[in-house]
Amino acid sequence: xxxxAQQFTNGLAVGGIYALIALGYTMVYGVLKLIxxxxxxxxxxxxxxxLTLVTSWLLSGLGPLWGTVLLVVMVMGxxxxxxxLLDRVAYRPLRESPRLSxxxxxxxxxxxxxxxxxxxxxxxxxVYPPNILPKLALSFxxxxxxxxxxxxxxxxxxxxxxxxxFVQKTRIGTAIRAAAIDQGAARLMGIDVNRIILMVFMIxxxxxxxxxxxxxxxxxxxxxxxxxxxxxxxxxxxILGGIGNIPGAMMGGLLLGVIESLGAAYISLAYKxxxxxxxxxxxxxxxxxxxxxxxxxxxx
Amino acid sequence: MSLLRLNGVTxxxxxxxxxxxxxxxxxxGIVMGLIGPNGAGKTTVFNLITGIYRPEAGxxxxxxLSLLKLGAHRRVAMGIARTFQTIRLFRNLSVLENxxxxxxxxxxxGVLESMFRLPAQQRxxxxxxxxxxxxxxxxxxxxxxEQPANNLSYGDRRLLEIARAVATGPRLLILDxxxxxxxxxxxxxxxxxxxxxxxxxxxxLLIEHHMTLVMRVCERILxxxxxxxxxxxxxEEIRRDPGVVDAYLGAEDNW
Amino acid sequence: MKNRRTVVFAxxxxxxxxxxxxxxxxxxxxxxxxxxxxxxxxSLNLIVGHAGLFNLGHAAFYAVGAYTAAILNTTYxxxxxxxxxxxxxxxxxxxxxxxRPIIRLRGDxxxxxxxxxxxxxxxxxxxxxxxxTGGANGIFGISxxxxxxxxxxxxxxxxxxxxxxxxxxxxxFHLLEYSRVGRALNYLREDxxxxxxxxxxxxxxxxxxxxxxxxxxxxxxNIYAAKMSIxxxxxxxxxxxxxxxxxxxLGGSGSIxxxxxxxxxxxxxxxxxxxxxxARMLMFGAAMIVMMIFRPQGLLPARRRAxxxxxxxxxxxxx
Lengths: 300, 255, 319
Description:
The complex is a heterotrimer. Chain A is mostly helical. Chain A has a domain of 205 residues. In chain A, the strands form 2 sheets. Chain A has a two-stranded antiparallel sheet with strand order 1-4. Chain A has 11 helices and 4 strands, in the order H-H-H-H-E-E-E-H-H-H-H-E-H-H-H. By secondary structure, chain C is an all-alpha fold. Helix content of chain C is 69%, strand content 3%. Chain C has 12 helices and 4 strands; from the N terminus they run H-H-H-H-H-E-E-E-H-H-H-H-E-H-H-H. In chain C, the strands form 2 sheets. A two-stranded antiparallel sheet of chain C has the order 1-4. The longest helix of chain C is centred in the last third of the chain and has 27 residues. Chains in contact: A-B, A-C, B-C. The interface between B and C is large, with 48 and 37 residues.
């Protein structure tokens, strides 16, 4: 029981991180029908930028609360800017081109970003300063759950909650959803689709960057290839929930985190990643629209 | 026995019933027209016959054999060929290669025969080229064989689709709005082409909105509305049927 | 125009034929690597270039071939060269099993599944699946190929072995392209619905593309294993698949000369620019973006096929 609870809560925390990254994939795919292969590397960049900020003098004067808030805001802002730049350079010129061109460009962007991070920060693992988050454990129903885990989970749930509110209740959010369903119709209804795309490339990467920061704080270690594993898993989560569906990505992320944690403990640690990919393949074969997605038929 | 028989065919898309309990017979050797307002389910019927859709209920018989278990490409081999309402050509390939696609199902060469150029394969290729060129000459595009399909005018593209369908050696040719986008001269040539195809022994089933063409070319006409058959008969009968006039044709001076 | 192409072609063959006489062992080995990647890229070209299926997991087929050779050779001492068809067969069979359930998936989804397959294979290899794959250290002690009693050992010997294989591959694939099968692959790439509606069994041809491409990648794996004598899962990562994919796309998807040129550039250029170190990958990523924006059809795009109409018995043709 103890093992189950620990793995379950760990799964939720990791799942929250996957969900944040998955949101980036799903929002971009929803509006542009493009798999942003470089998104995982934006996540990595977030982790590294967080490290730079944390170890620099910029935040040392502030207290822990304001320091953390400013850290999160700065990282999200900077990654959002990189996200917009990425779209301008690698994707916008290819809006009218066949899908394959955009896929290749995305791969190229991913290679570029990943190696840029490596060149700037070095190929070895980097470590976050250990005393940022308290090392306490909370007592809950007789179990010791690390406070860090709860903080990370709450942080990701908070961000998801804000995004959900934004997308469901505000006008811009509705415009984003409309553009995701039918870009042409949205344009005809007077929605500035270019602005929507801009927003999507700011919000998605910002979430991804924040996730990178959380990973740095939670696990302490980061390396320049982590965008690859996290990215593919987050993408699986997005597909699981129904690609293009925002609540789906959130749900998919949490679900995948829990499946992975429990799978690692009860089935096999070594094959943990393989299990995730197998889940991905099974979903795509048997229920490609995911748990919350809708079927769209092609008119012949 | 009729060449094509539909028996109580129903096709639903979610809550919408596109085709409801449709039944009709098509005799061999005639030209039959399928008309009706937009949304009546005509293209859906074509997609059901050619195997792109599976019906929820009913059956479709070709030469007495049920088609239900056969995939789309198998039906072509059996002798049903089609053109598409929206024109689906292989635009980056040459006109000749587009027609060669039709010859595919009458050929046998596999990977090994193709890689090693066995004599049977070479004979088959030459025969296919002949068939393809014949089909192109039939529709009047013989001189354009080497050009990219993209270069053709809209009317010529429709003709190319017909050539590709004829190259499959069909017994039944299904044309989905073949006159769409054609001017008067091209339409007249199309009428003459359809007669030639019929005289070759190929049965023709077509959807068309161009009423003059339909009345001239078709020996029987089936009228659909809201997924159901509302009338069937010779052109003169259909022309005078009040239900049809009401639903679709309008008074005669309108067309 | 046609004569110019023949001259260029003959010139290339001559240069390739004489190259090892003028190059040292290092550069000959670079050309050997280019040759192996050329075979891999030509095999992927069937899947991506001709059939139009996004396959980003090609390294999995490469790995199956390499490991088949390695395991059978080190365990049963079967000569590596005679395992060549066996490796092709196992890789092809693997592709058949894996591709059948996923063949009807739409483009992007198929892409993701192939990535997943590639990763699952790599993870299985690292974890010493069934105890025979040697784990992260791989398998060593693979013997060299021997032909008519002569052992192929030096870079120069491997050079001729590899490039003759490339030549045979080019010829066979060229003949395939100008045939019913080759056309079927192109039809299904251009418009699957139209192809099916014209009587082409699209599911069958998608599988054919995968199996044939996989079989050739498997044979490339055999050659690689024999050449390196040691193989490990590190040689069969996702980036390997991306590299091969990039060669096809940047060189000219669907074009044999394009793919060959792509192999020379993608594998050869970084060797020339070795002093730039890690910045090479950076350039590579940037190059992919730039190519897609300015020349998406590749450096040497596929040309439209011409048919010899004047040879027909009816005496027609020759426009």
